[in-house]
């Protein structure tokens, strides 16, 4: 018996962690399908902001676990971190949440 229903594409997720003493954020979790769903679920339960960018996730999936992000992604990830800090500040002060940054990576940088 065949299933002709359209299949949902495999979801991917990457979790980053950054401590102020580190030179760059590290990939602390990554996965596809059920693992990706679990990463997202854990982040949501912990109140961690989630940003969706298929292009960025695809690039980060190439980074080994516990490895720092490559220099080519520093600016993009820095913009995401700044956005997260603005979200936290807005939530504390009751201000509107800032719009998500554009995380597209110019082809000239890759």
Automatic annotation (TrEMBL):
Please report the name of this protein according to its UniProt entry. Flagellar biosynthetic protein FlhB
- Would the keyword Ribosomal protein turn up in this protein's UniProt record? no
Q: Which Pfam families match?
A: Bac_export_2
InterPro entries attached to this UniProt entry: T3SS_substrate_exporter, T3SS_substrate_exporter_C
Q: Which organism is it from?
A: Duganella radicis
| Cellular component aspect of the GO annotation | plasma membrane
Leader peptide range in chain numbering = none
Query: Which residue ranges does UniProt annotate as crossing the membrane?
Result: none
Supply the alphabetized keyword list: Cell projection, Cilium, Flagellum
Q: Which PANTHER family match?
A: FLAGELLAR BIOSYNTHETIC PROTEIN FLHB
